[in-house]
Amino acid sequence: MKPIRLAIAVALAVSAIACDVSPPNGDDAAATNGAHAIDRAHLDRVDASPAGPAMSAAAPKLQADLRALWNGHVDATRDYALAVKADDSAAADRAAQDVVANAKAIAEAVAGFYGEPAGYTMLALLGGHWGGVKALTDSHRSGDATAAAQALDALVANADEIAVFLAGANPHLAADAVRGLLVAHGGHHAMQAQQIMTGDTAAEARTWIAMQAHMDVIADALAGAIARQFPDQAR
Predict the structure, then answer these.
(1) How far, CA to CA in Å, does 214 sit from each of 52, 180, 199?
(2) Gap between the Cα atoms of 66 and 163, Å rounded
(3) DSSP assignment, residue 28?
(4) Burial class (CB in 10 A: 0-12, 13-18, 19+), 55
(5) Residues 158-178, mean pLDDT to the nearest whole number
């Protein structure tokens, strides 16, 4: 997948991806401008997508565990952005360590079903995601628009890599749909970083609510697919 502007791809409307669901039509993508602005209406449609509890009802513990892990990711990345905004290097370092610890926990969850090599691969991919988020956050703080654009493209490329990996591991995950979920997640990071650095607390509060809800969408999709693939292991 050739990296594209995150603002275009974030318009992908997402829903349940566990039952071989195809991604939405590309005509539904939002237009972008030079600053990579994200169309709020399209993003709201992504956020409004159902979390799909029925899809993962067969594995309620797995669903709850994955929700906690993915929400832990955005908790830590938000803490990092707030610390960078405050020029608090010690807090930023702590938050960065929390991001890495959370990535290790997600990778361990993957390894529990797919083996240690898959866990290592997932950790490396999550490391790439964090690298993009960190670069995006830092570039917004410094006002470096070129670096921000590069970070956005890196996040899109990383979303493609994660989608290919997960779809290859689980036949109930469609790569394009997973990619849509992850690109939308990257769009949230982009919006949040910009809003925090510009001091737009009201807008960031709305993005933060949407961001947490979208983590549940991702977690539920993964839990549902894993429960289908491993009905005797997933609880």
Answers:
(1) 12, 12, 23
(2) 17
(3) G
(4) buried
(5) 97
For the record, the structure tokens of 21 come out as 């669901």
User: Is the CB of residue 132 less than 8 Å from the CB of residue 148?
Assistant: no
Decide if 235 contacts 59 (C-beta within 8 A): yes
As given in the structure block, the two tokens for residue 224 are: 């549902």
CA distance 21 to 177: 7
| Contact status, residue 107 vs residue 72, Cβ threshold 8 Å | no
Q: Which tokens is 89 given?
A: 């290097």
Give the C-alpha separation, 68 to 51, whole Å.
Answer: 14
In this structure, the chain runs to a length of 235
In whole angstroms, give the CA distance from residue 37 to residue 204. Answer: 15
pLDDT tens per residue across span 75-116? 999 999 999 999 999 999 999 999 999 999 999 999 999 999
